[in-house]
Amino acid sequence: MSTYRDFTHRGSARATVLRTVGTRERRSHLTAPRVPTVGIDIGGTKVMAGVVDADGNILETLRTETPDKSKSPRVVEDTIVELVLDLSDRHDVHAVGIGAAGWVDADRSKVLFAPHLAWRDEPLRDALASRLVVPVMVDNDANTAAWAEWRFGAGRGEDHLVMITLGTGIGGAILEDGHVKRGKYGVAGEFGHMQVVPGGHRCPCGNRGCWEQYSSGNALVREAKELAAADSPVAHGIIERVKGNIPDITGPLITELAREGDAMCVELLQEIGQWLGVGIANLAAALDPSCFVIGGGVSAADDLLIAPARDAFKRQLTGRGYRPEARIAKAQLGPEAGMVGAADLARLVARRFRRTNRRRVERYERYAQIYDQAASTLRSSRGGTRTAD
Known about the structure:
With 389 residues, the chain is of the alpha/beta class. Helices cover 43% and strands 16% of the residues. The protein starts with 10 loop residues before the first helix and ends with a helix.
């Protein structure tokens, strides 16, 4: 572990670091310390932790299921701490970055709301910092994924990038000129909760008709299970695969069957993709980016999902035929993007924290030197007086 574990009273230093890091990200990442950091990606179904080096290479990963949402936030924090301590036994970890599936406040200290976890105004950063011996950075998981794709993946070289993450729900992030746009209150980019069907499917956020209810992993599985439960003729393939046990239907299974040519699964992915394209067209009208990067677990379906999304985007785009069209690209870093981005952003915090501690040590050494010199002078003066006597 890092040598600055020996220093205490670091709370105010961390707070200062996290308040200033956001406005200096682009300039700072090039000079951040080339040290390993841990990234944590907390989703609705899994917690993934990994040690990442300065070039975005993953040195080791650990995965576990997300504790049930009915349990206290402390249980999720315990899981994170256990993963970090496990990794730190084998790696010299200098900072921890958290990509949380929820709304994170502008100071990146609290998870204000997490639709798929029991977090409400949860002081996650401080709770973890009090239990770990390295600085902690907390951000929205889509922001961390977008940062990773901009730094190391499909978004390299883009000045205006929008990230869409399709997993249990839909996350999103906006990068302009190398800065994550978090908004006044830190909750920009929650595209999944745009209302696209008034009075539509109920969403865990409390509203109806949210975009993620029509284009996400949950939406994909919901539709497949409904068809299977109705014993639809088109669902016989997937019913046979799960031996009639409908709860065993998962997103990866649907994708697998679609690749094998199962007509129902292909159609379901096309529908999800079409809804994805509609939402992207709306975002293009509002934000006008040069590139959309599609990530998250559902993006593993590749062109079974992306091709219908591109077609729907072209049909729905405002001013189509008279304006440049944004590029739509699949994320290159896969499901590890959020983890890699969290670790890379944490490296910025590690640099400033190391600098703060170094200056503290330098001041201490300088004061100690002044004290020693003063003490030496005083001893010499007293000794000289006795000799004169």
